[in-house]
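Form P-L/3: holo structure prediction, ligand beta-D-fructofuranose.
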Amino acid sequence: MQRIHLKSPGNWINDPNGFIYYKGQYHLFYQYFPFGLTWGRMHWGHAVSSDLVSWEHKGIALYPTKTDDRSGCFSGSAVENKGKMYIFYTGVNYTDEDPENINVYRNSGFSASQMMISSEDGVLFDNLRDKKTVIPVIREPAVGSDVNTRDPKVWKGRDGWYMILGSTVDDKGRFLFYRSRDLEKWDYSGYCTADDAGWMWECPDYFETDGRGIVIFSPLGIAAGSSGYESYPVCAQAEFDEEKCSMKPGKIQPFDIGNDLYAPQSTTDSEGRRTVIAWARMPEAVNGRWIGMFCIPRVVSISDGHIYFRPHPNIVSAFSREITDISQSSDGCFRLVKEMAEGESIDIGGYVISAADRKISADRSAVFAGHEEIGYIFETPELKGGYHIDVFADRNLIEVYINDGEYVLSSVVYGTGSEITGKDYSLYTYGGQI
Ligand code: FRU
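OUTPUT (holo model):
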C-alpha cells in the first residue's frame, strides 16, 4: 500500500496511462520497465485506489506479445463501454534494435501502431488473445509519422468515439483525430498543428470542463536551448469541433512551473470532477531501488480564460492531523499552508520558497545536489494578487499550489531535512498510520 504520491514499485516508471474511474475504483496504469532503473522495452504497470489517496500495486497489466508491440507497449488511455474496460495504446516494433541491449532502439528505429485490448474487470488482460491493431503504422508522411505517432487518448463525444494522437509532420507537432462508432474501426478525420510549439507532440489529452474544451500535451523541443529537460507539458483552452474534427488551441500555459512533471493524463472522478495526474521525472533512483513517481491528483477548472489546478479534495481531507514539526509526520508526508508577505521566505527542510515582485519562486539547490543542469530555481509568472501557498510534500516531491491553483510549482528533491525556518504557517499530516 502506498499513500499520497504513488511511486514506482521498483525499477523504472514514466507516464501515467489508462487513468479511469471504473466500477467503483480508480485505475492508474503507467509506463513501466520492470528490469532496471532506466527506460527500456515498455510494459504497463497497474495500481488501484478507492479514494485517490491510498494505492495498491497490481503488477503488470500489459506486456509485449504481438509483432506490432514486440518492443513495447507505449502510452495510452482507457474508456468504459457497456461494462468493459477498453485500453488503447501504442504498440512499438524496433526496426533498429540495439544488439547490445534489446530493450532500446537506435537512430529513431521503430514503427508505431495503435492497439486495443479489453478487460471484463479492469484487472485481467489477455495479452495473448485479446490484442488488436486498430490503426496500423501510418505510411503517408503528409498525414503523420510512421515512427512518432503515439499516445491515443479516447473519449466519448456527443456523436461517437473520438481519438486524439500526438504526431509530427515537417518537423512541427500535430494532433491527429480519428472517429469511430464501435471502438474497433477508426477513421482518420482531421488534424491540428501550430507554429513555435515543438517538433513533436506527445501525450495529448482533450476534455471538457466548466463548459469549455481544454487540451493538455507534452511538446518535444519546446524548451530547446534552455537548461534541463527538452520538453515540459502545456495546456490551452481548445474547442473541438466534432463535425469537422478540428481544434483551435488558444494561448498556451505551462502545466506546472517546476519543469519536472511530464505527460499529464486526466479522467473524471467519482463526482465528475476533471482530475489529472502526471509523472515526476527523477534524475536518480532512490536507495538504488526505484525511479519515477506521480504528483497528487489535481482538479482542473477554467475561469476568465486561465486554467487552474487544485489539489484533489480527497487529498486535502486526508491531511487532517495538525502537527507542529515535520518529524511528527506520517511517512514524511505533510501539508504546509501559509500566507506569504512581500519579501518573505520560508525554508522547508532545505527547500526555500520566496515571495517578491508579485511572483513566487522556489530554490531547491540545497536538496537537489549535483543536478544543476536540470534547474535549481523556478519562478511563477506575475500573479493576479496575493501570495497564498498550499504545499504538499514528501521526501522526494514538493508541490506548491499558489493562490488557489493559479499556478503550481513542483520539484523533485533528495535529502530534505525536517527543520522549518519561517513563521506563521499551519502544518498537517495525513490521518492514517503506516
Ligand atoms: C512520454 C513518452 C510517450 C511514449 C512513452 C514511452 O514520456 O515518450 O510519448 O508513449 O513515453 O515510454
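COMMENT: The helical segments are 313-318.
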